[in-house]
Design goal:
CATH architecture: 3-Layer(aba) Sandwich
Radius of gyration: 20 Å
Number of strands: 13
Shape: globular
Strand content: 25-35%
CATH superfamily: Ribokinase
Distance between the termini: 9 Å
Helix content: 25-40%
């Protein structure tokens, strides 16, 4: 792709609306310095000098979409607690439609707390979550919210972090609703969800480990990677499959075409958390803007290369994409 193509894509993106359905969470960070080991146990003592929170899980996906200038709505569940209030406040601040979010009295808002030493060294992560299936009442409310808003969006992203939202075949029902409404659905899967949950998706974006588990095929060679991808394409009736491979880039499978690997850019990696959120957001936006799957993967790869150079779950702005590509001699 040329720089002018990316510029046109970024302009088209501003006219798109994406519905994101997925697990919602809050990411908190406690930052300090480690200067000694505790006398009580062989663990580091962190002297705290900063703490902050960011939108996490599917809320980070919508942050990426809004940062790139598109409209979006978010559908999922939170608890009836202080963290859900923080999430809602931040989502409203960045212009996300939150009317589809369901507050559940029987579960907490998913909350991840990371303790960092000098902002880079990850000391420990503390998770508070409930991965059980939704109640029938919450499930029906989610489906009602989806059906109500489907006609107003250009595409759907299903963001599965294995926190319970897509259990009990809710994921199957959601994809069927998207098929009936003729809306493309882009899925970021979980290794803990049954593969058949994603059958009929327009695009599936697993990483290498998720692709291996979902397909049941080992991916320890290029040949086996292709076998794994082809099996997922056939078994799940996919239009596209994008397997993300870290420093090896991403391999794209499309109906009737040979697999093609989009190489990554040479970069310094500080934090990979949230990179997958950026990739699925960019794939959905680029495809919705009319770009082919390979152009969309190139765009997503570029954006992911930017966010892994930041600390914590992060987003990418259009100006950053253009500057990054100029620095890498894309004309």
């Amino acid at each position: 792709m040329q720089l002018n193509d990316i510029s046109k894509l970024l302009e088209k993106i501003t006219k798109i609306k994406i519905m994101v359905i997925g697990d919602i969470g809050l990411d908190s960070y406690i930052v300090g310095d480690v200067k000694k080991i505790s006398p009580e146990a062989p663990v580091p003592v962190v002297d705290v000098n900063d703490n902050y929170s960011r939108l996490g899980l599917s809320a980070n996906v919508v942050s990426n979409i809004r940062s790139l200038g598109a409209e979006c709505s978010l559908i999922g569940v939170v608890g009836n607690d202080e963290n859900s209030e923080l999430i809602n406040k931040e989502l409203v601040k960045i212009g996300v439609d939150t009317s589809g979010i369901v507050a559940c009295m029987d579960r907490p808002t998913t909350h991840k707390t990371r303790v960092l030493a000098s902002r880079l060294h990850h000391v420990v992560r503390i998770d508070k979550e409930d991965r059980s299936p939704l109640t029938d009442k919450a499930r029906e409310q989610i489906l009602f919210n989806i059906r109500k808003d489907l006609k107003h969006c250009d595409a759907v992203i299903m963001e599965d972090y294995g926190k319970g939202l897509f259990k009990a075949d809710l994921g199957v029902d959601i994809i069927n609703e998207c098929i009936k409404a003729k809306k493309p659905v882009f899925v970021d899967p979980s290794r803990s969800t049954k593969a058949n949950t994603y059958k009929g998706a327009t695009l599936l974006k697993p990483n290498m480990d998720e692709a291996r588990i979902l397909s049941g095929v080992e991916t320890d060679s290029e040949h086996m990677l292709y076998e794994c991808g082809n099996k997922l394409m056939k078994d799940l009736s996919l239009e596209h499959l994008v397997i993300t491979r870290g420093k090896e880039g991403m391999t794209v499978f499309a109906k009737g075409s040979e697999p093609k690997t989009i190489p990554t850019f040479a970069l310094e990696v500080f934090d990979v958390s949230g990179a997958g959120d950026t990739v699925i957001a960019c794939l959905a936006l680029a495809r919705s803007a009319g770009f082919n799957i390979y152009e969309s993967a190139f765009f997503a790869n570029s954006a992911a290369a930017i966010v892994v150079g930041k600390v914590g779950t992060s987003v990418v702005a259009p100006s950053e994409v253009m500057e990054f590509l100029r620095e890498h001699h894309i004309k």
